[in-house]
Amino acid sequence: MGNDRSGAVAVGPAALDPGEVVGVARDGREVVLTGEALAALGVGRERVDALARGTLPAYGVSTGFGALANLHIPAGRRADLQRSLIRSHAAGSGPEVEREVVRAMMLLRLRTLASGRTGVRPGTARALAGLLNARITPVVHEYGSLGCSGDLAPLAHVALALMGEGTVRDAAGTALPAGEALAAAGLDPVELAAKEGLALINGTDGMLGMLVLACHDLRRLLRTADLAAAMSVEAQLGTDRVFAADLLALRPHPGQAAAAANMRALLAGSPIVASHRGPGCTRVQDAYSLRCAPQVAGAARDTLDHAELVASRELAAAIDNPVVTEDGRVESNGNFHGAPVGYVLDFLAIAVADLASMSERRTDRMLDVSRSSGLPPFLADDPGVDSGHMIAQYTQAGIVSELKRLAAPASADSIPSSAMQEDHVSMGWSAARKLRRSLDGLGRVLAVEILTAARALDLRAPLTPAPATGRAVAALRERVPGPGPDRHLAPEIEAAVAAVADGGLLAAAEAVTGPLR
Fold first, then answer.
1. Burial 143-178 (b: 16+ CB within 10 A, else e)
2. Residues with active-site annotation
3. Which of 49, 165, 208, 514: CA 20 to 30 A from 236?
4. Could you report the per-residue pLDDT of 63-111, keeping only the tens digit for each?
5. What is the pTM of this model?
6. Which residues, at least 6 apart from 386, have a Cβ–Cβ distance to it below 8 Å?
């Protein structure tokens, strides 16, 4: 995470902006509860207190949870009920979830609390905000959420830290007991009151946080995919005529129009493309992986647009069960089901796998002497003695194969739980976890394509690439040397991966084209 903590994010009943979520999750931005939030929290709490004083059974207030909802809990045991809920539900297992994911989840739960719909006390919401601002991150594990009744186990580990229990990491990343971290930050553990334990864990905030982060990252990777495709078109002596606006308008999908516009901008003024544009060129059509790049990247963009629409709706949602309604009722509901988020997480994983698959095919064409239009086999300096980028493509192919497996939908699965009370679940958390791995893989695949295309473009000398793609090659050359005898290739691949991840290559190209779409 970065150190910039400027510009606190105001958290209230209104929807959060995705950029605010990214800022808190990754850049350590602080949060502040608005006056409107504190007022809503007060009103919601009054409703829950009135319910707790009454005689009517209320789920999670005077009853047990899940399949135990028919068991009455006497008033004197209801604080124990909330503590027991958190301790028993903090049952995660496996590797730690990334800090940015946990912080996003904490922020999104705080936003729902700030709506006043959950009935927690203002002090409990302030405590969660204090945890974020102290940069204390509860240790959350990869396994434990079925994506229904909320991301129960992950959120329970956060609530456990609020109680001063469990393990957290401090601002420096050091693991320590939650009680010690709270004391060091001047924070008091929370004594949970009626319904508060349930309200802290009954939301889809983990999967939503990962969706918001994924959408942010995929936007950049889509522009990077257009850059990689443009470099490959030049490297393989392809044509830019198929990206003409009037041709793309015949099939009016907005995503493919944007991708084609990017490729036209990236290829503008290319001496390589101009060199074979005349009547002497006998190639009628490029391969699909070149010619159809905007169609595939465009479909991925349209898929991302839909995912961002779903995310925007979720960022305005108040998810809890039971929930405090506008007219003061406290009602059970099913809004905690993760299907809307799980579906788009899976949909994005399909698009990511397809983008990577097309990228790998373009790379392979540059290495195959029978298809590369005059480039040396495997772009090797001395073919036979040198292997060039032969095994870089193997690495790429291995990642693509993994991405195809990760594209299998998690949301198509369901395992009943809680003695069949919770008999259909979304698996949205699992969909989010695999999408994060998919996005990492896509970045690596694109990096290998760009690394290979840059080498091929250097080998086209004295012909030169377009100003924009040429600037990207120059930016890569600041990290990776140009063609020559075989070198240890793994560090060069990782340098290209870093240049994709930090946006350096994209920024170099956009310095010529202006912001790509």
1. ebbbbbbbbbbbbbbbbbbbbbbbbbbbeeeeeeeb
2. 59
3. 514
4. 766 656 666 777 767 778 889 999 999 999 999 999 999 999 999 999 9
5. 0.94
6. 378, 380, 485, 486
